[in-house]
Amino acid sequence: MGLRTRRGRPVTKQTWSRLLSNPIYAGWIRNGSDRVRGKHEPLVSEEVFNAVQDRINRKSRPHSRLNEEFPFRGFVKCSGCGRNLTGGWAKGRKERYARYWCWQKDCGAVGVSREELESQFTGLLSLMAPTAEFLAELPLIAAREWETRKVRIGKDAETLSKRLADQETLNRKAIQAKIDGEISAEDFRVMKESLSAESERIREQIRALDSERSTMQDLTSQAQVQVIDLVAAWNNASVNQKQEMAKGLFPEGLFFSEETKFFEPRNRVLIDMSLRWLEEHRKEKHAILNIGVPDGI
């Protein structure tokens, strides 16, 4: 966008880092370790400034926001330390690779590709034959997840509304700067295009939020008319719907083991599944042993 230093030089990475970390743009005056509220008008809101600081410091903690590319963030846990796995792109020699891993320095027991983890999860869903008990619990699960969704949607809508208001404020300031002759026509055109594009992205996110459905509620309705297809429901869900579905089916989360390359049965759902499988296997084995001719023939 043509930003230069006072001497007309390109802005260095160090200068850009100091700019992004300076609280004066959020309305604060810093004196050593102390901060006081200034009398000047902030250029950005407190929420935007804090979000930028969180992004800058991302290496010291896992990602907390949902990402379309990594729906298992904050849900699948490390079997070694029990903490949530994080996800991101690992850099290879020629390309990047999507991975989940344990980010704890004293652990690091899990490191798995996104494709393998998602394949194991859909495989787990395919093994979950909905039982009568599960079908009876679906309305309760849907109601519980709906309450969680309402809180999240409300917070997301508030954040998006503030971001849109910030864009409108920046747009008004750009117009005033153009009128006052503080920026050139070309810089104004670039700023307007950038602001318009960002505003449209925010509006699109707001529209998506308004149209978001409840996957668990859909599964409840589906159970009344046909057999539930959990794998298809997962594949067709958005990232928020996937998280809702995963937490609804496995409220205690899932623990992934690097050694077995599968989810450990540490929660009630998987334990019940294992017990049912063992019971069915025992009956089948018993039935097989009773088939055949009597001894001595």
Overview of the structural elements:
- This protein has helices at residues 13-21, 46-56, 114-127, 132-179, 185-210, 215-223, 230-235, 239-249, 268-289; strands at 28-31, 34-37, 76-78, 86-91, 96-101, 111-113, 254-257, 262-264.
- A hairpin with a 2-residue loop joins strand 1 and strand 2.
- It contains nine helices and eight strands.
- The model is unreliable at 59-66 and 286-297 (pLDDT under 50).
- It folds into three domains: 1-57, Alpha-Beta Complex (Hect, E3 ligase catalytic domain fold); 64-130 and 252-284, no CATH class; 134-226.
- The chain is mainly α and 297 residues long.
- The protein is 53% helix and 11% strand.
- The strands form three sheets. A three-stranded mixed beta sheet has the order 3-7-8, covered by helices on one side.
- 16% of the residues are buried.
- Terminal Cα span: 92 Å
Q: Into which percentage range does the β-strand content fall?
A: 5-15%
Q: How many helices? A: 9
Kindly provide the radius of gyration, computed on alpha-carbon positions and rounded to a whole number of angstroms.
Answer: 27 Å
Low-confidence stretches: 59-66, 286-297
Number of domains: 3
- Measured as a percent range, the helix fraction is 40-55%
Q: Encode the helix/strand succession as letters.
A: HEEHEEEEHHHHHHEEH
Largest sheet: 3 strands, mixed
Q: Strand arrangement, largest sheet?
A: 3-7-8
Chain-averaged pLDDT: 76
What structural class do the secondary elements suggest? mainly alpha
How many strand segments?
Answer: 8
Structural shape: elongated
